[in-house]
Design goal:
Blueprint: E1 2-4, E2 8-14, E3 17-25, H1 29-42, E4 48-57, E5 60-66, H2 76-85, E6 91-98, H3 105-123, E7 126-128, E8 132-139, H4 141-153, E9 157-163, E10 167-174, H5 178-185
Antiparallel strand pairs: 1-7, 2-3, 3-6, 4-5, 4-6, 8-10, 9-10
Length: about 190
């Protein structure tokens, strides 16, 4: 899976209609609604503001797509297929259309929305998504320096630490390395 850390913009004229593609990094459906509202304010004369998103949550992947008045399945779904096809999570892709007077037909709309989504995603810098895990450890003082070194080698970091009779630490590290660290220090 991949994610993006910043927004990207792409614009194209297809048979006199102006298509503006924008991709936003998001982490919640609330952010989706905020971005859509803002785009409706910025583009009050747009004929259609179509979108699709895919968000990784604690319970799985949440996704939606919206045709915004275009014929069913010709706008939101082609956008979503590019997000899903590239295994992107935590992203909102919006395509804004200003109608240019030439009807594109169902196939033309599907191609235009899909192509605009593809182009904006192709311009985006994608980063590999690494599932992180939080783990708690209780350590003796003499093991702490070795623990810190092992944690750093596994691309982890300290979230919280408390020093008392023993050291109590909570760390965040890639899920794939969780068992390695636990086998050494639990």
């Amino acid at each position: 899976m991949f994610y993006l850390s910043e927004s990207y913009h792409y614009e194209e004229i297809i048979k006199k209609s102006r298509f503006i593609g924008i991709v936003f990094p998001i982490t919640s459906e609330k952010e989706v609604h905020l971005h859509i509202r803002q785009l409706q304010i910025e583009h009050p004369h747009a004929n259609h503001i179509v979108f699709a998103y895919r968000i990784k949550t604690q319970t799985g992947i949440v996704y939606r797509f919206f045709d915004a008045g275009e014929p069913t399945g010709t706008a939101g779904k082609p956008i979503f297929q590019h997000i899903e096809g590239k295994h992107i999570i935590n992203a909102l892709v919006v395509v804004i259309r200003y109608f240019g007077g030439v009807k594109l037909g169902a196939g033309g709309l599907t191609r235009a929305y899909g192509q605009t989504a593809k182009q904006v995603l192709d311009f985006s810098v994608l980063h590999p998504y690494i599932e992180m895990a939080e783990v708690h450890f209780t350590l003796d003082y003499e093991k702490f320096q070795t623990f810190e070194y092992a944690l750093k080698k596994l691309n982890g970091h300290m979230v919280e630490q408390t020093f008392a009779g023993q050291i109590s630490v909570t760390v965040s590290l890639p899920e794939a390395h969780k068992l390695t660290l636990e086998s050494q220090f639990k």
